[in-house]
Amino acid sequence: MTDTGDQSDPDDGDSDGPSNGPDGTEVDDADSASEDELTGASVGTDLDDVVLDELDADGDGESGEASRGLFDDLLSGEPIFENKEVLRPSYTPHKLPHREEQINKMATILVTALRGDSPSNILIYGKTGTGKTASAKFVSEELETTSQKYEVPCEVEYINCEVTDTQYRVLAQLANKFIEKNEAVIDDRVAELESLRERAREDDAELADSEFDGVEAVTEEIDDLESDREGFEEVPMTGWPTDRVYSSFFDAVDYHERVVVIMLDEIDKLVEKSGDDTLYNLSRMNSQLENSRVSIMGISNDLKFTDFLDPRVKSSLGEEEIVFPPYDANQLRDILDHRSDVSFKDDALSDDVIPLCAAFAAQEHGDARRALDLLRTAGELAERDQTDLVQEAHVRKAQEKIELDRVVEVVRTLPTQSKIVLFAIMLLEKNGVRNINTGEVYNIYKRLCEEIDADILTQRRVTDLISELDMLGIVNAVVVSKGRYGRTKEISLSVPLEETEAVLLSDSRLGDIDDAEPFVQARFDN
Ligand SMILES: Nc1ncnc2c1ncn2[C@@H]1O[C@H](COP(=O)(O)OP(=O)(O)OP(=O)(O)O)[C@@H](O)[C@H]1O
């Protein structure tokens, strides 16, 4: 999964500033930079109304006196964070408590690369936020550092398949990375050879320890390298036939001796979007490569995605499997303890904050990202309250806020038809209808579709869409028996009405509905 953490970020803009600049440096910037912009834009004043003279009456360029105090109050409290970045998903921790076993297993497999052989392919599984990416990145960094130490050529390439989700893009991205690396290797070598040639021109003995028998041989080698370099052609992001991209990648990897570990994060997304061709091609490369070796490390939180793979790909990819189990509350507590030491000021957290964040996140499904989000959001809420102590209430508020942000995001990204169905349910609920049934939803749904000129789906399809909304946790649909009248679904909204309405109305199509009341009045009509 991606870093959903950032979605739950409570308006970074306004809380980061005050927390980061307690010593006045940021204040100076804010004052002198563009007072008009800050005051005008932030409080929603029309910029044309801002009279610059008032801000800098004496024209000496110092507008500090005229500050309207927008930031002063926010800055006056003691800051809570020492270094908030440490709590963000983008930060890679140096220590990963409770992942020693998985990290050691990865290292045991990958150490083969340092001996110049290709390590087995690895598949890493585990639910979201269980530290898969963080652990894999940690191990790759170690691997690359050690390979430099022992001068064994070994490289790790990371690809996030949620972003790079087609065979073309994966191969093009890899090809271009290796071309870049090859160019760097050539540049270094050419510089070395040029200096050797220079010295050899003065004194032949300089070549004694080299593979060259004369200055001409050095020049020849330089020319060869330069012509190789000129032969490299960057792969465009679209437009080439896939086999040309593949051979470009193949040649780039095989340009010199090395072991390459290709880390495919969210590998299930790649398979879902574009099948298993990429994995098939990558997994059979080794039999054709002459100088280099390739090994694949796939990361997924979908345990079932291998069911869709060609059996050959499946067995080759899953040579080694490592499972990342969810964290329990105690483990999450350790993780938060470690991170909070660096991220918060001393004594900024009351005793129950970390255990509560850990407990909430453990209930979720042992997700460390969620636990860190909670802790950071709680800190930001405390900061807004201008207190210097994060307390249990801040954590509870943070939990609500994150949940709401999640809902808003889910609703915002629903397909239009689901949005119309949800809008119908919301209208009924808003008008006080209880125990809403599918027929009522369908009637209003149809009228809404007519109003905005959308296709009208069958009642059966709409029932399916309601079930999907139920699975997403947006509505609650329970089947109730009506005796001899059969069974029906009773539907209610499981998310806050006001926010849901606001998100739905922000959709350009639904936003066109002027007045929805009449639709509800007509809910019993057919
Ligand atoms: N053992 C740990 N110690 C410290 N931080 C951790 C640990 N495990 C996870 N984290 C932190 O939790 C967050 C999520 O971890 P990570 O991205 O590795 O999860 P993931 O399993 O790859 O999740 P997803 O499948 O959603 O990508 C990151 O900020 C990471 O630094």
UniProtKB/TrEMBL annotation:
Matching entries from SUPFAM superfamilies are given as: P-loop containing nucleoside triphosphate hydrolases (SSF52540), Winged helix' DNA-binding domain (SSF46785)
Give the binding site residues for ATP: T130, G131, K132, T133, A134, Y327, R339
> Cdc6 C-terminal domain location, by residue?
422-504
The entry's protein name is ORC1-type DNA replication protein
Which stretches does the entry tag as region Disordered? Answer: 1-49
Per the record, where are the segments of Acidic residues compositional bias?
Answer: 1-15, 25-38
PANTHER family in the record: CELL DIVISION CONTROL PROTEIN 6-RELATED, ORC1-TYPE DNA REPLICATION PROTEIN
Q: What's this chain's function?
A: Involved in regulation of DNA replication.
Instruction: Kindly list the GO molecular function terms attached to this UniProt entry.
Output: ATP binding
Q: Which UniProt keywords apply?
A: ATP-binding, DNA replication, Nucleotide-binding
- Top-level taxon of the source organism: Archaea
What protein family is recorded?
A: Belongs to the CDC6/cdc18 family.
Tagged with keyword ATP-binding = yes
Q: Which InterPro entries match?
A: AAA+_ATPase, AAA_16, Cdc6_C, Cdc6_lid, ORC1/CDC6, Orc1/Cdc6_arc, P-loop_NTPase, WH-like_DNA-bd_sf
Q: Where is the AAA+ ATPase domain?
A: 118-328
